[in-house]
Amino acid sequence: MPDDWRPKLSRIEDPIADDSWEYMTPQGERRVARLTVGRPVHFPQERCWYSPVMIEGYLAKVTPVFGEGPVDSLMNAMTLIKKFHDENREIVPGVKPRRALSKTPQKKTRGKTAKSKMQRKKPRTKIRGADSR
Length: 133
Description:
Elements: E1 15-24, E2 30-38, E3 41-43, E4 48-55, E5 63-67, H1 70-87, E6 89-93, H2 117-120
Antiparallel strand pairs: 1-2, 1-6, 2-4, 3-4, 4-5
Protein name: HNH endonuclease
Region (Disordered): 91-133
Organism: Stigmatella ashevillensis
């Protein structure tokens, strides 16, 4: 048997849970991490199951977390997520990951300046004689 028999994973093919958490590290740094857990996969060579897990900034790569069966591997994966949770503080789940400003496309103006709502409104004109009878 080779030294490292575990599957080499580059990505999670079938995610079942995906979230971004903002948190404070033990060193006092505020960060945002994306957490993803994949559907349990049968690994017949070793007669076990694994659930792929990725925690950005905490795990170096997608990590297979093993168990005797699909539920056991999922419970062990969630134990790893819980360990990450317990090592940090001020956890805020469900935050939107911050994107680099350079990646967002900028709208180009074609020589026109933006006008305020008041400037765009056309003045109302009164028609004389319309109400006189």
